[in-house]
Design brief:
The structure holds 2 protein chains of 2 kinds. Chain A is mainly beta. Chain A contains 10 helices and 51 strands. Chain B has a single domain (38-440), classed as Serine Threonine Protein Phosphatase 5, Tetratricopeptide repeat (Alpha Horseshoe). In chain B, 52% of the residues lie in helices and 6% in strands. Chain B has 19 helices and 7 strands. Chain B has a two-stranded antiparallel sheet. A two-stranded antiparallel sheet of chain B has the order 3-7. The chains are: A mainly beta, B mainly alpha. Strand 30 (660-666) of chain A pairs antiparallel with strand 1 (29-31) of chain B, so a sheet runs across the interface.
Chain lengths: 1011, 448
């Protein structure tokens, strides 16, 4: 910190030196207009080239500036416009016409703690403009990234509103620590994980609390050069989100946007009806040599009821969103205000997500040197949840599995409870009751805010201080009446109603102080430097109370519980103390060099390894500035760049390095028991990253291409390594193992046609990532996913193989003679056992990407967005239950079961049904399917009403649009949807479909009015 | 200039101390170095020891009853399917759980034995008692260990490097070492526990020694220690067997590990009642319903609505929930002492009369309102003891250990399951243990 004080006192001295620069001053004025429509352009930056003298155009496009001499050159820049250099040439009035930028080269890009122009970037940064997702009803920013940027893989875990997603930037770097990217909103790290836990595999999502409608720009930082400034948190990539702010000298814009639509499941599973199922089950029982009548499978009786359970729990959901925002400002003060309400009904009954949010941002220039401002967002969300797939009493999973022989309601129209004699027992629960009767609400209040002040001590020497907070208050309010499985069927929960009330206060406080300096020497050497100090403190305060034995099901709060026997409160803090810096240099904008580094101290690591340094360096060469390429006029820009550096991952729990004892109890007395072994050497995972990229721009920016290759190696994996239990402990938190990610990415954007009012543009991104576990603590496999008969785990982590590999028997077909499954007897011992399991596929795609085509013509806009994943495999565990070969008669079966082997000579891939025989239903490659898909993610059609009409009613713009999301999917996958994950957020156990709620399609219409 | 001051103040305010940020204090954890350094920790660590031992007892029930002919698998968990089908593998998760709980108890006992001598300010009585308790639990844990796994590593230190690379010690050596522990405990423990059957006393140690000598076939010592406990008069048979099924701390409990609402994991209740993952085997149902068994059929209950297919409709009732005040697991109770003495006397030829085996069996039969024992020959009386132990102690973790120690396992279990194999007279060493401990490589029990 001493350096800061030194800089400040230095600055104090220097500022008092006389301003001799203004000796031969001359005042220039003028007006800036747009080449496209002749309108005046407010907010354009006008700078005298080679100096730091600058001004901004006012609301009428006028500027006034003092230049050092008559030979001065003005440089004009503004977001969305081509930068321009205009020599003054002895004029005193200089009017300038500016072109709208087609390409993004001159656009200003936020790079962590600084900004730069896209052409000057030496690292790997993908930008996603909110225009790309404005027509898609995305809940959160993570969903908005799907298919939009190369190197960013987004998979939605299910069709649950406000639910979890898996976002991976350039692959999975870790086995047991987090793989989620770092999300920075206006300079502060925000919560990016699930808010609550315990809903059968489907989590909620903290990012759903941020309204995408307030986003101005998103940058995804992908290589070491771009990320190293975030040091120990950056290994999984960084998503920088900048929210909307007011613009200087702008007429106040008020925009209202209304969206309404309907949602429905993309595809339902095809299940048997009661008589089909009965025939199948009778056949299975007879095949087992038993009498089906004795098991109660009697034709005309058992199938007397035929319930379609999916109809009972599914519906069409109503989607609606309303947003009003105002944006504007004068020379000194700028503001942005918005309010948003979103209500998304789930396709499952009683499931829904509501969000209200409000944002206010103010920036103020107090003097020419001092400016300050604040941004404040408050969000309230109410998530009405239903139990997910990885639970016997889940709603969708229950409806898929439930026998059609039963009805959800009795003759009196009442829902069957868990112990009703007219309803099948464990593991069957009435899914309608499980959806309708419990109250499972998560109420979250999020406050995201910050204040900053910036002072310019000297020309171009700026000091900025910002304090921010991300404050999440989560209240989970649960009640299960005695008519549900949780409240009525579990003896240890009392069987007379069960309630829980959980709170969690998760707050992040960040204080950032940065100092930046930039200069241009001899008009050739441009140097910019940034240094900063940041302190981040995270606090989690949690509490819960459970109540049992409620007198009546109408009394649903714990105040009425007779037994309140479990409760807790807890506090945990963690912190990060960091210094960081960045130096950029370029020679004539031709040769560019950047060095970045961060020094992080983290509370999560051992005394011996608390501090770590994460350096990176990058170089770029803009070949297009070279003489020898200047004759190729079609080439607007060509840049070759390379970077190398280190980043870290610290996403593990707290205090894991300490050897500790915790509270324990015995027979009503409390005491201490050992919790964990100490490891003073515990440290972050370290990723070594190398990246080479080529950016090319042709035909005045009409065609842009970026190709990148990277090679990343993560070592010192945070891993809870198993140790002999004779030590008194089961595991030891250490750093062992290596993981490699290599890949190639291509991004193309082009304006194919731009004439006579018709404009057709195309954006394409393609990515390939090769992930491999290079080294583990031992050669012993680590199992993940689900345990299933025939394998200790559906997924395996094995050295030399990628994460998400599947492990099971190899299915060779069905024996036409016996109808039994044939498996590969890998070890040749003549028996089929779990020892014959082998690798049978992988969850990671070989190639993924997105393709967007946009057409505009006279106010019409059509956008067609495809998103795809190729080469990934999905474990269809749903099928293991739905085509179970008779191993159980407690669940319904899929129509695929009709293709089963029935008599000698049948050629089929579905084995014979034999009651209580699990052999034909062992977990095998029969259940691993190609999960490649091509999805028409969104089609939208918009129309801007002609200005003449609109202006008559004193409006600036009126736009009507319709949009369809997830309209069409091409896949060979036999389940309902290949894009699901039964264990949301899992890395090692990814790619499993186990009665998981498929994605939903959304058809909506919208209206945007700008005043 | 005032802005500079403002900025300086801002910076200073934000830069709270680095230590505060980087070294937050855990609120619920105490670091290793600080535990058992002062006298205040003595009672706390003592509870930690009891708690660790308690963690082992559900595994004892699973080993003692699930490995034998008492259960039938009726659920979805692979581990219990293995027990039900008698296809136990070294990757069975309960096999590793038992092993882990055993060595956790040993770890805390060794921790106490290492640290306690250096702690100042502890009364000599408290020091003596905790030392004796640590030795008792270490000994009893190892006793369960050798009869479950055979030769096991014998640990006397908390040193991590030593304990992670340790070979198996011959069963006889472990038995000698644990007998020394039990005898040391017998010397130093108070005569009777002042805090009920949840805590140790001389009587508990005598009960443990009775069982120890029974397993060693040292009949006279077994009889002697069982008599000491019976004659102490501190424990009385409850008149109604259902009290044992349905209540914690019945008057005949000698040692019972205690759960309360806050810490009851409901492990056994979930297996038996919540999920009915395992149900009583058909043979056991018949035996418990016999006229010999009498009221002890209360161990299980029948529900006709559950009877279908594989499910015989019966449910094990011995483990309720903490809410029902019935979550404890019994380690020793008076009825077992009568059974030990009956067996020891029968083996010594003391068959009838006031000090004969039949008299001791009669005590339990009478309580259970079962028909009187009619056996007269030594062999028949020993078989009657075996049956009596099944009626009386079903689901208290005895059956498999009894069958193995009496050499009856092969005969009884082969009749019960076609998959039975003599290798199941011991559990396998957990596969993970063999992988992680270099000294155990290639040291699996025969047949696994």
């Amino acid at each position: 910190m001493r350096n800061f004080y030194r800089v400040i006192s230095w600055s104090a001295l220097l500022i008092m030196l006389p301003g001799y620069l203004l000796a031969q001053a001359q005042r220039i004025t003028g007006r800036v207009t747009s080449a496209q429509d002749g309108q005046t352009l407010p907010g354009v930056n006008v700078v005298v080239k080679g100096t730091t003298i600058g001004a901004t155009t006012d609301a009428n496009g006028n500027y006034s500036i003092v230049v050092p001499g008559p030979g001065a050159v003005l440089v004009l820049t503004s977001i969305g416009l081509n930068s321009q250099e205009v020599p003054v040439n002895n004029r005193t009035v200089v009017n300038i016409v500016m072109q709208e930028a087609i390409n993004e080269l001159t656009q200003v890009v936020v790079t962590g703690y600084n900004t730069t122009q896209r052409k000057d970037i030496t690292g790997s940064i993908a930008s996603v403009s909110p225009d790309r997702f404005k027509n898609i009803p995305v809940t959160g920013v993570d969903q908005a990234l799907q298919g939009q940027a190369a190197g960013v893989l987004v998979q939605q875990s299910s069709g649950t509103p406000g639910g979890g997603l898996m976002v991976r930037i350039r692959g999975n770097t870790s086995i047991s620590a987090g793989n989620r990217p770092l999300y920075i909103v206006d300079g502060i790290q925000v919560q990016n994980s699930a808010l609550t836990s315990g809903y059968g595999g489907q989590n909620d999502n903290a990012l759903a609390l941020l309204n995408p409608g307030d986003i101005e720009s998103i940058q995804v930082l992908k290589d070491a050069s771009a990320k190293a400034i975030y040091g120990s948190r950056a290994a999984n990539g960084v998503v920088l989100i900048t929210t909307k702010r007011g613009k200087a000298n702008q007429k106040t814009n008020i925009t209202a946007d209304v969206q309404r639509g309907m949602t429905d499941l993309v595809k339902r599973p095809n299940l048997l009806n009661a008589s089909q199922l009965l025939d199948l089950q009778r056949e299975a029982v007879i095949n087992a040599g038993q009498d089906p009548d004795k098991l109660g499978l009697i034709k005309g009786v058992t199938d007397g009821i035929n319930t379609n359970w999916l109809d009972m729990v599914l519906r069409k959901g109503v989607y609606q969103q309303y947003q009003v925002s105002a944006q504007g400002g004068n020379e000194r003060t700028r503001f942005y205000i918005s309010g948003n309400y979103r209500d998304e009904q789930g396709v499952l009954i009683n499931n829904g997500f509501q969000r209200m949010s409000g944002t206010m941002t103010i920036d103020h220039n107090a003097t020419s040197k001092l400016s300050f401002g604040t941004n404040m967002t408050v969000t309230r969300s109410l998530n009405s949840r239903v139990l997910g797939d990885n639970a016997l009493n889940g709603v969708y999973s229950g409806a898929v599995a439930s026998l059609p022989y039963y009805s959800p309601y009795n003759e009196q129209g009442q829902l069957y409870g868990p112990s009703d004699p007219n309803y099948p027992g464990f593991p069957n629960f009435n899914p309608v009751a499980e959806a309708l009767l419990p109250r499972q609400q998560v109420l979250t209040i999020k406050m995201l805010g910050g204040v900053y002040a910036e002072y310019e001590f000297l020309q171009n020497l700026r000091f900025r201080s910002k304090a921010s907070v991300d404050y999440n208050n989560i209240t989970e309010n649960l009640f299960y009446p005695s008519t549900t499985s949780t409240g009525g069927a579990i003896p240890s929960l009392g069987q007379q109603g069960y309630g829980e009330y959980n709170t969690n206060l998760a707050a992040t406080f960040t204080s950032t102080n940065t100092i930046t300096y930039n200069t241009l020497i001899n008009e050739k050497h441009r140097l910019s430097a940034l240094g900063g100090v940041e302190i981040m403190k995270q606090t989690n305060r949690t509490s819960f109370v459970d109540g049992k034995n409620f007198p009546r099901d109408e009394f649903t709060y714990i105040t009425s519980a007779q037994v309140v026997d479990a409760g807790s409160s807890y506090l945990v803090n963690n912190g990060l103390f960091s210094g960081f810096g960045e130096v950029k240099y370029d020679y004539k904008e031709k040769y560019l060099v950047t060095a970045t580094g961060r020094y992080d101290g983290s509370s999560r690591f051992g005394q011996n390894r608390q501090f770590g340094f994460f350096p990176s360096g990058s170089v770029a060469w803009r070949l297009s500035e070279e003489e020898f390429l200047s004759k190729y006029s079609f080439l607007s820009d060509l840049k070759l760049r390379a970077s190398y550096g280190f980043t870290g991952n610290e996403q593990i729990g707290n205090f894991l390095y300490l050897g500790t004892w915790g509270a324990t109890s015995y027979s009503g007395s409390s005491g201490l028991g050992p919790s964990r072994l100490s490891n003073p050497n515990l440290q972050w995972e370290r990723t070594r990253e190398a990246n080479v990229g080529l950016d090319a721009s042709f035909f005045n920016g009409r065609l842009n291409a970026t190709v990148e290759v990277y090679d990343n190696l993560t070592d010192k994996l945070l891993f809870n390594q198993p140790i002999p239990l004779t030590s008194g402990f089961g595991s030891f938190q250490g750093n062992v193992g290596k993981m490699s990610n290599r890949g190639i990415e291509l991004t193309l954007s082009s304006v194919n046609i731009d004439q006579k009012g018709l404009r057709w543009s195309t954006d394409l991104n393609l990515s390939r990532n090769e992930n491999k576990v290079v080294e583990l603590v031992s050669d012993q496999p680590i199992y993940a996913g689900f345990q299933a008969s025939g394998t200790p785990g559906t997924n395996i982590v094995l050295p030399g193989q990628p994460l998400g590999s599947y492990w099971g028997l190899k299915f060779l077909g069905v024996d036409p003679g016996t109808g039994n499954a044939i498996y590969d007897d890998k070890n040749g011992d003549g028996r089929i056992t779990p020892d014959d399991a082998q690798l049978i596929g992988n969850a990671q795609p070989k190639l993924y990407g997105g393709l967007t085509n946009r057409f505009t013509y006279k106010g019409f806009e059509l956008s067609v967005f495809f998103q795809f994943s190729y080469g990934n495999r999905v474990v269809n565990l749903t099928k293991q239950g739905l085509v179970n070969s008779g191993s159980s008669i407690l669940t319904n079966q899929s129509t695929d079961a009709l293709k089963r082997w029935q008599k000698e000579g049948d050629i089929t891939s579905v084995p014979r049904y034999i009651y209580q025989n699990t052999y034909n239903d062992y977990f095998s490659s029969r259940f691993v399917e190609d999960g490649s898909y091509l999805r028409l993610k969104n089609v939208s059609l918009g129309y801007n009403l002609p200005k003449i009409w609109v202006n008559k009613v004193k409006l600036a713009n009126v736009r009507i649009y319709t949009s369809a999301t997830n309209l069409w999917t091409y896949t060979k996958y036999s389940g309902s949807d290949p894009e699901v994950s039964a264990i949301d957020g899992s890395t090692a156990g990814q790619g499993i479909d186990l009665n998981t709620l498929p994605q939903v399609k959304n058809m909506m219409a919208g209206l945007t009015v700008t005043f | 200039m005032k802005y500079y001051y403002t900025l300086l103040i801002l910076i200073l305010t934000f830069l709270t101390s680095c230590k505060d940020v980087l070294e937050p204090k855990p609120v619920d954890l105490l670091t290793d170095e600080l535990v058992l350094k002062s006298a205040v920790d003595v009672p706390l660590v003592r509870i930690g020891l009891y708690s660790a031992f308690r963690g082992m007892m559900s595994s004892v029930v699973i080993a003692g009853d699930f490995t034998a002919d008492h259960i039938k698998h009726n659920g979805t968990f692979a581990s219990y399917q293995e027990f039900g089908n008698k296809q136990i593998t070294s990757t069975n998760s309960d096999v590793a759980t038992f092993w882990g709980a055993l060595y956790r108890t040993v770890y805390i006992a060794n921790f106490i034995l290492e640290r306690l001598p250096a702690v100042t300010g502890v009364t000599s009585d408290a020091r003596k008692q905790l030392t004796a308790e640590a030795r008792f639990f270490r000994g009893l844990a190892e006793f369960y260990g050798v009869y479950t796994y055979g030769d096991i590593p014998l640990l006397t230190t908390t040193d991590q490097a030593t304990n992670r690379n340790v070979t198996r010690t011959a069963k006889a050596t472990v038995l000698t070492a644990l007998l020394a522990d039990l005898n040391a405990a017998l010397a130093d423990l108070p005569d009777d526990s002042s805090t009920g059957a949840a805590y140790l006393s001389k009587r508990v140690t005598q009960a443990a020694l009775a069982r120890y000598y029974l397993y060693q076939k040292n009949w006279s010592q077994a009889e002697n220690y069982a008599s000491l406990v019976i004659n102490s008069g501190k424990f009385t048979l409850v008149p109604d067997y259902t009290t044992i099924v349905n209540q914690n701390f019945p008057a005949e409990s000698i040692l019972e590990v205690g759960y309360t609402l806050n810490d009851d994991p409901a492990t056994l209740n979930t297996l038996f009642v919540g999920r009915r993952e395992v149900i009583p085997s058909n043979q056991l149902v018949i035996n418990l319903n016999s006229t010999e068994s009498g009221t002890r059929v209360a161990t299980i209950s029948f529900d006709a609505t559950k009877q279908q297919g594989n499910d015989n409709g019966w449910t094990v009732r011995k483990y309720g929930t903490a809410l029902e005040n019935n979550a404890n697991i019994v380690v020793f109770r008076l009825a077992e002492m009568y059974l030990i003495r009956a067996e020891a006397r029968a083996q010594q030829g003391k068959l009838t009369g006031a000090t004969g085996a039949v008299a001791d069996l009669g005590v339990l039969r009478t309580r259970a309102k079962g028909i009187a024992v009619t056996a007269t020959s030594q062999a028949d009386i020993l078989l009657a003891v075996e049956r009596e132990r099944q009626y009386e102690l079903a689901f208290e973790g005895h059956r498999w250990y009894d069958l193995v120690r009496t050499g009856r396992a092969q005969a009884v279990m082969s009749a019960f399951s076609p998959n039975w194999n003599s290798r199941y007279e011991l559990w396998p060493i957990p596969q993970s243990e063999i992988l992680n401990n270099p000294s155990l490589q290639g040291a699996q029990n025969p047949g696994y």
